Amino acid sequence: MKDIVEEIGRARRQVSVEGESATLLVRRRYDAEVEEVWDACTDAGRLARWLAPVSGDLRLGGRYQLEGNAGGEILACEPPSLLKVTWVYGGEGSSEVEVRLAEADGGTLFELRHAAVVPPGMWDRYGPGAVGVGWDLSLLGLAMHLAGEPQPDPESFGRSADGARFIAASGQAWGEAHRSSGADEEQAASAAKNTIAFYTP
């Protein structure tokens, strides 16, 4: 991977808002076969290498827990094309994450949709980047894993020069998706700035 910031441009981001419900969509292509990407997204040993260690009853209807992150129920599992789970972080509220995979030009089209009811104060302050930057970081990890490259240290990545550049580019990309959804220009810019600051202490 020549420049990790280039990974931001490999994805397309969309945001839709209806009342307090918001849906984020990120879509990108990986240079790996669908079965390989599916395995990386569903095998506990591989998930631990690019996302987080996972425990639980990892089958349809079972419950999972990502170490230090979200947990929930496995709502749909249709290998190698569809995985849908509830996503509960910090014991507050519930959202849903859906991953769809499809063959695309010898590789895999990866599509992640995250739908949630968002507290108005949080959305006003951080916008879609609060969750979107986290997903960009995760999908960077997946790209590096699929390419056989070592993962950055998550504890120090945001304080490194490359990490700060990546997070800034991700925050700006989600700010643009926020504006494209109809958000006020000033509000979207402020939310993107707050999100970048949150991720780069």
- The CA-CA distance between the termini, in Å, is 25 Å
Q: Tell me the helix content.
A: 25-40%
Structural class: alpha+beta
Number of helices: 7
CATH topology: Alpha-D-Glucose-1,6-Bisphosphate, Chain A, domain 4
Low-confidence stretches: none
Overall average residue pLDDT: 94
Main β-sheet, spatial strand arrangement = 1-2-8-7-6-5-4-3
Number of domains: 1
Compute the gyration radius: what is it?
Answer: 16 Å
**Shape from CA axes?**
globular
Q: Architecture in CATH?
A: 2-Layer Sandwich
Task: Give me the count of strands.
Answer: 8
Q: Strand portion, in percent?
A: 25-35%
Give, in order, the helices and strands.
HEEHHEEEEEEHHHH
Identify the CATH homologous superfamily.
Answer: START domain
| Biggest sheet layout | 8 strands, antiparallel
CATH class categorisation: Alpha Beta
Pfam families: AHSA1
Protein name: SRPBCC family protein
Domain Activator of Hsp90 ATPase homologue 1/2-like C-terminal: 31-144
Organism: Nonomuraea roseola
